[in-house]
Design goal:
Helices cover about 50% and strands about 10% of the residues. With about 700 residues, the chain is α+β, with helices and mostly antiparallel strands. The chain has 3 domains: about 10-165, no CATH class; about 170-340, Alpha Horseshoe (Serine Threonine Protein Phosphatase 5, Tetratricopeptide repeat), CATH 1.25.40; about 365-420 and about 540-695, no CATH class. This is Chaps-domain-containing protein.
């Protein structure tokens, strides 16, 4: 199979990409950025003139200086758009997040290979075998972390990144898992997902990567073997072992492992949370409705104990809230959600590079497809109505995104009006608080200004904090203000008739507002006791209600107008970007059918990886094999065009298809597709990889 083309970003000043990477080493907090490859080219007839070009890459074997040098050597054989120049030097940079060093290999062509590392102070150090082992493991984890889910969001974020699959056979799997076993109990040093407050032995980037690998490839026996060995050293690992057993449908054995392990460590919050998650899934099985309440009660006990074991972790409180939602105990669900500790989102480490002199993003002719539009999507931004661009929920990540999902699930089940009633039953509302607390005559003005300041965020002045950071965009549309422009089929301006079907939430009293400068906690507590044991709503949750109101308002306008246009047999027109945003909006609100409808409308105008990923999920749910394969091939094509040969989500989809339908049927469907040979070969490669892994012993 022909390898994808190599992107090139040209340096303004020679070696500036290397210097820029060195400068940010001390600021890296996660697994580190993708690997950097910098090349020096010179014209044969003018050796004195050199230019520097670079690109980023993930998934290359980083187990030694020789393996990284081999990657640079492969680039010297590739056909280049500047045929008059040749590569004479190369530097490969790969971050070691364990020791916080940047491992580097300098290759001269022809000539020598020099491996070394750079510390956070920019000083050169010797690269040992132990450091290379750490670097290799970090490289595999980064490949999974920076892989695209199919929607294209990760691919667009960093320009010119080549992505390769780091584990393609049982030999490389053995090396990966051996490294993971050796370094397992140092995994907490790598940090963790943004929803985890304190990384530990079983909640960190290493364990996340391992679980993602087993989920993607279906290599459950390998995972069971690994965690069985590690469990003999620390009982905490039992939660990971149980998770892999659940993945492999070994439920009885998984329950037995958790039962025995919780007896040894009764307040291990990850084990308790794993139990609660399993019991919830079993309770929601539609074929065993009669057991639902018993299982939910057991899940409630586990989830409640996990919040006691880890009161500062978001995940434990979120799980308890989800159990209450499943039990339809709405008041406790809302109260528990209000108790969730929220963390500022820590994004992945991304390269910070100077503006390149030139950007070259080549496409192989064999992979060109008319429907795959490779132009930047900023081209479509002027076709989007401002009311759609201001939907703040689309920006949520980490704990805020998870909490918002719980809130929208409640809304989908009981409706917005009922949710507002429950909210007013649970929390102290601003109106009742003000009527209870009448300020002295001389302080009326101060009270008024204080009220204005405290509720500013809800009235559309500065927006609510997004992911823990203050966001100061002026968004009048969030107020439901009738003077603000709203969504229409022709991007016109309309009044608030459709908006009136969604009630605007009144304001709660936040802890900050209740305190109101009064340092006397007892006095504040005494005043609040008059409100029938109601609670104060956290400011972030109050903001989420306003953001949810805005989502519902725009959604209602869209659906109302579509119905009106259909009744009049008129075409409802939107740009592709607008349809994509509306699809995401419907998805957030748990309206899958409407989301698919919007995504289809988007794809009827132009290709969109995000829209196609949304429809692919529907095809998988409905077990539509041919449509699923066709969608996967189109996504493979788009990713291949942007230098990616690796997507765990697409690998998982093909693996499950092969397990359900058989390898021969899937391959025949792929072969019947009239697409460029390169794309077919890559899709066959995905399928062959999955089939080979399944048939290579040990997998049950």
């Amino acid at each position: 199979m022909v390898a994808p083309a190599v992107p090139e970003l040209t340096e303004e000043i020679l070696h500036e990409s290397i210097d820029a990477r060195t400068e940010v080493l001390a600021a890296l907090r996660e697994l580190g950025p993708p690997d950097l490859v910098q090349l020096i080219k010179q014209a044969p007839r003018n050796p004195g003139k050199q230019i520097g070009v670079y690109h980023h890459v993930t998934g290359v074997d980083a187990s030694s200086s020789a393996s990284l040098a081999a990657y640079i050597n492969t680039l010297t054989y590739k056909e280049n758009h500047q045929s008059s120049s040749k590569i004479v030097e190369g530097v490969y940079c790969c971050y070691n997040a364990f020791s916080r060093l940047d491992m580097r290999v300098h290759v001269t062509i022809p000539g020598s290979v020099d491996g070394y590392c750079i510390d956070e102070r920019g000083e050169k150090r010797v690269a040992s075998d132990e450091l290379w082992l750490e670097t290799y493991l970090c490289s595999v984890l980064r490949a999974y972390s920076y892989a695209d889910d199919g929607s294209g969001d990760t691919i667009r974020k960093i320009m010119g990144v080549r992505r390769f699959n780091p584990v393609t056979n049982t030999e490389t799997e053995h090396r990966f898992l051996q490294a993971a076993e050796q370094l397992f109990f140092r995994g907490w040093q790598l940090g963790s997902d943004s929803v985890v407050q304190v990384p530990n032995n079983v909640s960190n980037h290493l364990t996340t990567g391992l679980l993602k690998y087993f989920h993607t490839t279906g290599r459950f026996a390998s995972g069971i073997n690994l965690f069985e060995k590690l469990r003999t050293k620390n009982v905490e690992v039992s939660s990971l072992l149980a998770k892999v057993l659940f993945m492999g449908n070994e439920e009885v054995q998984a329950v037995r492992v958790l039962y025995e392990s919780v007896k040894q460590s009764p307040m291990d919050y990850v084990m308790l949370d794993t139990q609660a998650e399993f019991l919830m899934k079993k309770a929601l099985n539609p074929n065993q409705e009669e057991l639902k309440q018993d299982r939910l009660r057991m899940a409630l006990g586990c989830a409640d104990r996990s919040t006691v074991a880890a009161p500062s972790e978001f995940g434990t409180w979120a799980r308890l809230a989800e159990v209450y939602v499943a039990m339809e105990d709405w008041e406790n669900a809302l109260t528990t959600l209000n108790s969730c500790p929220m963390f500022t989102y820590q994004d992945k480490d991304a390269p910070i590079m100077p503006e390149p002199k030139e950007i070259y993003l080549p496409t192989l002719p064999e992979t060109r497809l008319d429907e795959i539009d490779s132009e930047p999507e900023s081209k479509y931004s002027e076709q989007v109505h401002p009311s759609l661009l201001s939907l703040r929920a689309a920006q949520y990540k980490g704990t805020f995104k998870h909490a918002y999902s719980i809130l929208t699930e409640m809304t989908a089940k009981i409706g917005w009006d009922q949710l507002l009633k429950i909210r007013s039953n649970v929390f102290v509302m601003e109106e009742e608080y003000r009527s209870e607390k009448q300020p002295p005559v001389g302080q009326q003005g101060d009270s008024s200004s204080k009220r204005s300041a405290s509720t500013d965020v809800l009235r559309g002045s500065p927006g609510p904090p997004i992911n823990g950071d203050e966001h100061t965009d002026d968004e009048k549309s969030a107020n439901g203000d009738s003077t603000a422009p709203t969504l229409t089929a022709e991007n016109g301006v309309r009044g608030s008739t459709a908006e009136q079907t969604v009630e605007k939430p009144s304001h709660t009293v936040t802890p900050e507002e209740a305190k109101g400068g009064n340092e006397d906690a007892d006095a504040t507590e005494e005043q609040l006791s008059r409100f029938n044991n109601k609670r104060l709503c956290e400011r972030w949750l109050d903001s989420l209600f306003m953001v949810l109101y805005e989502d519902l308002r725009i959604y209602t306008i869209w659906r109302t107008e579509m119905a009106q246009y259909r009744a009049q047999q008129m075409q409802y027109k939107k740009s592709a970007e607008e349809w994509e945003i509306l699809g995401s909006l419907a998805d957030r609100l748990h309206h899958q059918a409407e989301a698919v409808e919007a995504y289809r409308a988007c794809l009827s105008i132009r290709f969109s990886p995000k829209a196609l990923t949304g429809i692919l999920a529907e095809f998988e749910r409905e077990k539509q094999t041919r449509e699923t394969v066709a969608s996967v091939i189109r996504l493979v094509t788009w990713q291949y065009r942007w230098y990616s040969e690796f997507s765990p989500e697409l690998l998982y989809t093909i693996r499950t298809l092969i397990e359900d339908e058989g390898a021969l049927k899937v391959r025949s469907i792929i072969q019947a597709t009239s697409l460029p040979q390169n794309v077919l070969e890559l899709t066959h490669h995905y399928a062959a990889l999955c089939a080979a892994f399944r048939s290579s012993g040990t997998e049950g």
